[in-house]
Amino acid sequence: MTALFALATSLMWGLADFGGGLLTRRTPALTVVVVSQAIAVVVLGVVVVATGAFSEAGPQLWFAVAAGLVGPVAMLAFYKALALGPMGVVSPLGSVGVAVPVGVGLVLGERPGVLQFAGILVAVVGVVLAGGPQFRGAPVQRQAVLLTLLAAFGFGAVMALIAEASTTLTGLFLALFVQRVTNVLAGGGALYVSWKRGGRVLPEEGGWRLIRASLPALAFVGLADVAANGTYSLAAQAGPVTVAAVLASSYPVVTALAARAVLSERLRGVQAAGAGLALVGTVLLASG
């Protein structure tokens, strides 16, 4: 079940990243984050009320609050890094965040078997290569590298925090709701500050009309991200965090394949090799 939930996580995160990437081509990234997460808050609020999940409130929800504060910072740092540096460098470097939950698992006493350890190494290498790293001709600003590492740490921290935020299914609904409310409050505050400073918060062409037309896509991005956090939490509870984290972090492969299918982007040789290695690593992890 760990492998199944973790692979579902990578699928939904990969599709959410692909959808978010398309939306940010015309809409400011912070606006995409706030609107998509606000839609998720509404849906999760209905689920929490319907399931009576408020009865699961407890100190563990502080982990969800922390995840809600860290997530928007990591996402904005990642988008900023993409704007400053080559995507072929930034994207694979961002995947090193998997070291955070894997490290947490090792500290807590998890010890992968031989097959699982081999699968972790193979899968991580595959994920990095699937991002299409550039080995030559890719000058990168130091700021872009620092922002990418900040984003990677943030993404990994969210994975570790959300896994600790609940122990039951209804508790998970409440934890995800709290996380998303925190996301919206933090992101909304940053959006307001940006607007007060003269920053752009609406698309240059279309304005509110484009936002309204994009609501279905924004809803998909927000809900796919929520679902991914939920399935990752279930994966981490069902089995070793080290295995769940690595399998869930294979989402760059999904993003690359989605770009190939929808935008007809050709996979570079290094990306195809990375996707193959990630698949091999997945098989090793699942069989271990």
Summarize the structure.
The chain is about 75% helix and about 0% strand. The protein is mostly helical and about 290 residues long.
How would you characterize the overall build of this protein?
77% of the residues lie in helices and 0% in strands. The chain is globular and about 55 Å long. The two termini are 13 Å apart. It is mostly helical and 288 residues long. The model has no long low-confidence stretch (mean pLDDT 80).
Tell me the structural class.
mainly alpha
Give helix % range. Answer: over 70%
Number of strands: 0
How many helices does DSSP assign?
13
Distance between the termini: 13 Å
- Proportion of strand residues: under 5%
| Order of H and E elements | HHHHHHHHHHHHH
Largest sheet: none
> Which regions contain 5 or more consecutive residues with pLDDT less than 50?
none
The average pLDDT score comes to 80
Morphology = globular
- Radius of gyration, in angstroms, nearest whole number: 18 Å
Oligomer: single chain
Per-chain topology:
Elements (H helix, E strand, L loop, with lengths): L1 H22 L5 H23 L9 H24 L2 H8 L4 H9 L6 H17 L11 H22 L5 H28 L10 H7 L1 H24 L2 H8 L2 H12 L6 H19 L1
Helix pairs in contact: 1-10, 1-11, 1-12, 2-8, 2-10, 3-4, 3-7, 3-8, 4-7, 5-7, 5-11, 6-11, 6-13, 8-10, 10-11
